[in-house]
Amino acid sequence: MLDRLRPTLAAALLLAASPGWAQEPGSGTGAREEPRAPGPVMRIDGEAIPAEAFGRWLIEAQAGSAARSFAEAWAVEREARRRRIEVSPQELAAELEAEIDERVEGAFLGIRDDWRGELQRLGRSEGGHRAQRTVELRPRLAAKGMAALGRVVPEDKIVRDWELAYGPRGRHMELLMLKFQVEVPTATEGDRRVEQAANRERAMAEGLERARRARERALAGEDFGALARELSDDAATRHQGGWLLGGFRQAGWPHAFIDALLALQPDEISGPLYARGGWWVVKLLSERRTPLDEVRDELEARLIAKGPEQDEVGRAWDAAVKDLEVEILPGMYAAAPQAEEAHADPAALRIDGVEVTRSAFALWLLHLRGEPLATRFAEAWLVEREARARGIAVSDAEVLERTEQYLGWLIDEAHHGSREAWLAYVALSGREEPAVVREIAARMRTHLLAERLMQAEREITPEAVRRRFEELYGSSGRAVRARLILLRVPPPPLGAGLTREELDARFAEARRAVGERAEHLARRLEDGEDFAALARKHSEDPATAAAGGLLPDLFRPGAWPAEVAEAVLALRPGQVSAPLFAGRDWVIFEALSSEPVRLEEVEGDLRAGLAAARPAEVEIAAYRNVLLKRAEVEVLPSMYE
To answer: What share of the chain is helix, strand, coil (3-state, %, to 5)?
Structure first.
């Protein structure tokens, strides 16, 4: 496939008429600058990868998922220009530099080389990071400019900053605090839910009693600080005699706790208050009140200078993209132009009726996702190179078949088999079905090639044949045809705040209840009822229930827990197993036939099956990673310049 990516995409990458990618409304696909000669954006094992090859791959792999993001950013900038808001290069550079400075200062103690080292470990470069963030920041700054037009600072933000600066409701409180931690012991026997609840009740009562006794001693005149050093379980304040340095900050404390503090008078000691896993006794030493009206102007001026916050910027963005119509045009995937059409730059998108060229979209995509996806491209390129060297190829029909298989699996697993639900999900995410299918097909082609390469390199050892034999027939070598009744253990109702022990108890109860149903069915089978009839009525295995529980193939020991496999292989024809727990389900088996199998009899079939078996997803990922580690991959500055 990458051979198809190689034809020129210079127009799609290098025909932008300005440093920005967003066109003026109505500019369509009009006159542009002469294209520059395409330059390589990567080197893989010394071979230069031209911009057009990488760009075509980016479009094939990303256009469907990225088109909506591009269109939204395009629409935001369009609306900003309409409102005479321009994001200058200086403003953009300053915002980016401030962002980098904050990251370097906060995470790397101000050492910029350490930040660059992190980028390198992630396969990134400073230039690539700057290019990506420039593309992302420009429309965000445009939306921020729109949010600032006629802005009135929201009252809730003024109140928020007032309380952050001056304490809850403007009251800066100096406190001494005593904490009595509530430690709930783990239930170990009996009905865990009941025992755990009782343990918690006892621990709460014990903590409350300790807090009450400490409060009584404080009210009787003992020094509160001395009590804190002697009794408090809060390490942050205990060594300071309960003193809360810097005054009380309300973040993370329950409203009821804060309200109780605000009701205290200076030198008053609170009753026991529960918060943050324990009971607290608090003494208010002093407070300083700052009415909101006294500082409102100062707070508002500070918020105005700071500019709109993320929620306000988000509302401006949403308003600009409301009812946005985006359509991917055939030009997005059009074949590369012939030499005499070297300047052709087809329309790739239609946004609210305005056509946007492929060059505008491709340049944006290159800067936004080019460097982050360079490794993925290199893996695909290396797989294709290896396949060509070995004469391995896959047909379009094979790619289509695998794509359809993957889509069928995806729809079954994530959308309960409803193609309509999948299409609704695709539309909800701002994508179009053909583009999504195209992206999947591009991945499947590389996937198939990697499979064929792995199969060609696969060595079938005697040990592998023996393992496969035991997976299919067990160590004793038996071919068992069987029926199955399966009862699923449903997940129990789960609530917030449950402990691990409480969760385990609920799962155990669900398992026990379904196990009782399985035992009841086993007794009916012992009494002579027909296995197939009971399977049709009660089995919850959709693959076999309609067929009276009949397994479509031989019983596969390797697909079941060892104890289940051993029990089924030991059955004689006509025998029924006891209920067996298979990890998540209860199962009952009936053996219809059981024949001995010798390794020598099936060795040829086993070898053929192993040779043709699809590698697992994790194996394919590992294979691609090995190819990548063996190669020398270099991202060139032209990727982001």
So the answer is: 55, 10, 30
Answer whether 15's CB lies under 8 Å from 35's CB. Answer: yes
CA distance 544 to 560: 16
165 CB-contact burial (10 Å; exposed 0-12 / middle 13-18 / buried 19+): middle
Q: How far apart are CA 125 and CA 140, in angstroms?
A: 23
Residue 343 backbone phi and psi in degrees, to 5: -95, 5
Q: Report CA Rg, the chain.
A: 34
Give the residue with greater pLDDT, 559 vs 5.
559
> What pLDDT is attached to residue 505?
83
Is the pLDDT reported for residue 522 higher than 50?
yes
Q: What residues form DSSP beta bridges with 93?
A: none
All residues at 6 or more sequence positions from 482 whose CB lies less than 8 Å from its CB, including other chains? 551, 555, 568, 571, 589, 590, 591, 592
Q: Look at the alpha carbons of 429, 435, 440, 443 in this order and tell me if their dihedral is positive or negative.
A: negative
Show the tokens assigned to 385. Answer: 């190179």
E-assigned strand segments in 79-229 = 171-181
Q: Where are the alpha helices (DSSP H) in 461-561?
A: 462-473, 500-526, 531-538
Q: Which of 114-123, 567-576, 605-614 is predicted least confidently?
A: 605-614
Instruction: For residues 474-481, give the mean pLDDT.
Output: 91
Element (H or E) spanning 403, and its range? helix 396-415
Classify 485 as helix, strand or coil: strand
Sign, CA torsion 293/299/301/307? negative
Q: 635: closest CA among 127, 102, 117?
A: 127
- Banded pLDDT at 390 (limits 50, 70, 90): very high
DSSP three-state, residue 80? helix
- Are 620 and 367 in contact by the 8 Å Cβ rule? The answer is no
Q: What is the pLDDT of residue 341?
A: 52
pLDDT over threshold 90, residue 34: no
What the block records as the tokens of 328 is 């991917």
- Kind and range of the H or E run holding 215: helix 192-219
C-alpha 226/C-alpha 239 separation (Å) is 10
Average pLDDT over residues 306-312: 92
Higher pLDDT residue, 298 or 508?
298
User: Long-range pairs for 197-204 at CB < 8 Å and ≥24 separation?
Assistant: 204/274
Phi then psi for residue 43, to 5 deg, are: -130, 135
pLDDT band with cut points at 50, 70 and 90 for residue 38: low
Residue found under tokens 């035992």: 519
pLDDT at 492: 76
Which amino acid makes up residue 125?
S
The three-state secondary structure class of 549 is coil
For 82-102, give the DSSP string: HTT----HHHHHHHHHHHHHH
Ranges 185-194, 279-288, 433-442, 499-508, most confident: 279-288
3-state secondary structure of 251: coil
- Single-letter amino acid code for the residue at 393: A
Helix or strand holding residue 600 (H, E): helix 599-612
